[in-house]
Amino acid sequence: MLEKIQQLLAEVETLQAHSAEELEALRIKYLSKKGSISALMNDFRSVPAEQKKEVGIKINELKTRAFDKINALRAEFAQTDSADDDIDITRTAYPTPLGTRHPLTIVKNEIVDIFSRLGFSLAEGPEVEDDWHVFGSMNFADDHPARDMQDTFFIEARPDVILRTHTSSVQSRVMEKTQPPIRIICPGRVYRNEAISARAHCFFHQVEGLYVDKEVSFTDLKQVLLLFAREMFGEGTQIRLRPSYFPFTEPSAEMDISCNICGGTGCAFCKHTGWVEILGCGMVDPAVLQLNGIDPTKYKGYAFGMGVERIANLKYQVKDLRMFSENDMRFLREFEAAN
Ligand code: DAH
What we know:
With 339 residues, this protein is an alpha+beta fold. The chain contains 11 helices and 10 strands. The protein folds into 2 domains: 2-84; 103-338, Bira Bifunctional Protein, Domain 2 (BirA Bifunctional Protein, domain 2, 2-Layer Sandwich), CATH 3.30.930. A hairpin with a 2-residue loop joins strand 7 and strand 8 (249-258). The site of 3,4-dihydroxyphenylalanine (DAH) has 11 residues, from strand 9 and strand 10.
């Protein structure tokens, strides 16, 4: 009996399995009710009493060893098995989700692109500005209503420091350092002290354009804006200029484009007029040139400014301005295709 146990112990140590079936066969051979260890247990009854202790210990040892060995084989097996399952080298790579550009960035880039093709170069200025660059240098009279607390964010400790209310301040930043010819396009964020609603926000985005040179006429302005409107909204787009007033331009105008939603026939968006306003523009007031160190007897210029949100609304019909700053992924993902 002891010999038999010894032999089985040696056998168990050398066990190997190459498949789940082989492993199961081993389990049956050694550990099942009909297996060789069970058979030994049955024979145990006939072992003489004085040997029972020694034989019992040996049988238990065999049982434990066989159990451990088969479990170890199973674990080894499971490991290689799962490794095989996990790595499928023929599978395509997991896609890395890419972010999307913000709709306002898409529209701003498009505006800047169109004007760079027309020879305008990019200029930027600070969002935290002083009164001079936002108002004074732009020919705002001291008592102009736009300086009112209603519109402007002031910084308490420094009454001359404000958040710029328009990108026209960049005109001044460039003119004070550069003599003509100047041909710049200035995108940026602006701030106004407004209650946030679907139609107004305390910050929004503008793109400013400025051209100063020897022979600049209103016709040049009109032609450049027509080209812009057609590039941005399509070949068939019409423009019209209505007289307006800005302190920094004379004459001043507001430009409408034929409504790109109804094609000019009239709809709710254009309030059934067929036209929608998209920007302000005009010939740079000679006083502005003077205030910024440019000789108005030698040079003339035109300028324009537009709201990026406004253009984006027209292109994508976003009804609520707040969508642009809420970072709702469902909204932002809609612009994946436009990237
Ligand atoms: N700064 C104006 C605004 O915020 C927009 C504007 C109008 C800019 C006419 C210009 C311009 O350069 O010529 O409403």
